[in-house]
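Input structure tokens:
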């Protein structure tokens, strides 16, 4: 079981790309889920802390969940889980840091 440590020291979080993704998601009208307050969450290329760090979400971020898949067990503010949320192509965050209102899957499994 791992604890996904958030990176509170990274200053450049690819804000331009993040803003472009935010605008595209809002235009599509996708449901968004808030990241736990007080966390800058690591986004990984796959469902585990051993996958490459893609970017870091800003404080107060919310994310769409396209699909979910099992992966590494992680403990966070919303419990311990092995569910990882796909928030964009090749981008995953642990569901332990996303307030979905459920301890289980809330959408389709990623293929």
């Amino acid at each position: 079981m791992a604890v996904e440590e958030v990176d509170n020291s990274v200053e450049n979080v690819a804000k331009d790309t993040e803003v472009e993704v935010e605008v595209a998601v809002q235009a599509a009208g996708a449901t968004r889920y808030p990241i736990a307050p007080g966390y800058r969450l690591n986004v990984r290329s796959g469902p585990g802390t051993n996958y490459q760090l893609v970017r870091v979400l800003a404080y107060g971020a919310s994310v769409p969940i396209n699909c979910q898949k099992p992966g590494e067990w992680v403990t966070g503010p919303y419990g311990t889980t092995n569910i990882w949320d796909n928030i964009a192509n090749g981008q995953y965050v642990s569901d332990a840091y996303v307030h979905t209102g459920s301890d289980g899957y809330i959408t389709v499994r990623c293929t």
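Strands lie at 32-34, 42-44, 53-56, 62-64, 67-76, 79-88, 91-94. The longest helix spans residues 15-28.
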